Structures are given as structure tokens and as C-alpha cells.
UniProtKB/TrEMBL annotation:
NADP(+) binds at residue 53. Its main location: cytoplasm. Pathway: Amino-acid biosynthesis; L-lysine biosynthesis via DAP pathway; (S)-tetrahydrodipicolinate from L-aspartate: step 4/4. It comes from Paenibacillus harenae. Its EC number is 1.17.1.8. This is 4-hydroxy-tetrahydrodipicolinate reductase.
Amino acid sequence: MSTEKINVAVVGASGRMGREVVKMVLEDETLRLVAAVAPSAGPVDAGIFAGRRETGVTVSATLEEALASAQADVLVDFTVPQAAYGNTKTSILSGVRPIIGTTGFTPEQIVELDELCKERGIGGLIAPNFSIGAILMMKFAAQASKYMPHVEIIEYHGDQKLDAPSGTSIKTAELISQARQELRQGNPKEEETIEGARGGYYNGFRIHSVRLPGVFAQQEVIFGGHGQTLKIRHDSYDRAGYMPGVNVAVKKVMTYSGLIYGFEHIMD
Ligand code: NAP
């Protein structure tokens, strides 16, 4: 394996996720931080901003400025949906492999960006979830649903989350639906005496969303069978939990061409 360091640019370097990415890069001696971007952070040292050592990398206000002054191999973006598509395109056109954690891409945009990556002969990844534990939870749930097709999902998030159910629970439900035989669960005569009591309906089964202060991100997938239940549960406690996945992605993206959607597709 090559001993060359991978040069990483971090976009959204002042954000909660971006600062974790900066720390992760600084803690891995096979990676080198070469650029950092945040529109309103000012010209501060990216390492100091993340609560670590001085790096000599000054946060740039724009991606163009940052890429012009650094030889980046990989760009990691945790910003806002309005900026992520443009950042990804700029990155690919500059020959820099994008690793994107920001959500909100349309299927058409993903196809276009995949073609651009292939034209340039570089890899890229858009991953709505970088948590290795959450991806495993989804895979295990899909596997279990073949043998125990009666299932419900309960997901827990902080009370300020806007969307319900969570993207992860919908993705889990999709994978379960692909893996199990079609089945409409429960009593066909069931009636709700309080609206919403049975949760959201998805392809024959239910998803329940709990929203409480103090909760970060958790999900339980519960299977019921004759005389038994099986629970598959994943708990996220903070943003650092996404970083092992981002670290794997930064290294893996150096080895293929084209844009991959979904972290699960780069897990061996
Ligand atoms: P945050 O703390 O609000 O940080 C947002 C960052 O984006 C800041 O650095 C901000 O810089 C920057 N930014 C804002 N507008 C920008 C623009 N037009 N161009 C470039 N940068 C811009 O948010 P966060 O909690 O870190 O989350 C960031 C994103 O990651 C969100 O979309 C979130 O949904 C996603 N996320 C993904 C995963 C995953 O596993 N894929 C996990 C967690 C979060 P300024 O402060 O200078 O404006």
C-alpha cells in the first residue's frame, strides 16, 4: 500500500460535523489537512477552531479560494443542502474526490455527478449516514425480516428535529420491504381511538417517531414471532460516532472511479 498521505479539504469546517472531521484528519497520520472552508468563520486556523493544535491551514471563505491554494486529493463536505451540490461539482471539476455527508441531492443530480466523476476518472461518495453501527443495524434488520417478517420500527431523536420519521428509519423500512415477502401486519379490523397511535404506515408495517430533549439518535427494530421477539437497536451518542465511517470513506474513495450513493456500498 502507498505510504503517501491523503490530502484532505474540509468544507463546513466551522460546523459541528466539520470540526469533528478536522479533528479526525489531524488524529490520523496517513491524512493531511490542506484546506478548510466556512463562509463566516473568518481567517482563523482550522485546527485551533476545532479545539486542536495549530495547523497552518487558514479557513477560507470560499471553496474556489481553498482549492486554488491547496493540492487536495479528497474533499469532505458537511454543510447545507443549498451549497452541497455546487460544492460537489466544483470539487469534481477540480479533480478532487468528494465525500459528501450533506443530504438533499436529487436522483438526477446524482446521475450527473456520477458521470462527471467517471469522465475525470475519480471516485466520489454521497452518504446520508456515515454511522457504521447504523448501517449494520439496517443490514441486520433486513436479514432478520426474511425469517421474522412481523416488524415495527421505533426511532428516537431530539425534539428540535423537523422531519418525521427519520431518514434512517425510512431507509431501514425500504431495505426490509426489499428483503421480506409482502405482508400487511396486524388486525385488519384495528381502529385507532387516538389518531396516530399506531404510528406511520409503511408497506404493511409501522414506524413510530419519538421526539424528546436529551436524545441524540437511536433506533429499535422489533421483530415478533411465535412466543418470541427480537430487538435490533442502535444508539448514537454524539457526532464523533460518524467519524470512523468518514475515515474509511476518505481512504476508500482513492481506489475507485464514479460516484457511489450510500456508505453501505463501500463496506466490504
Ligand atoms: P452546522 O453545525 O450548522 O454546520 C454547517 C456548516 O456549513 C458550517 O460550517 C457553515 O459555515 C457551513 N455553511 C453554511 N452555508 C454554507 C455555504 N453556502 N457554503 C459552504 N459552507 C456553508 O451543521 P452540522 O450539524 O455540522 O451538519 C452539517 C450537515 O451534515 C447537515 O446537512 C446535516 O444534515 C448533515 N449530517 C450528515 C450526517 C451523515 O452521516 N451523513 C450526520 C450528521 C449530519 P458558517 O458557520 O461559516 O456559515
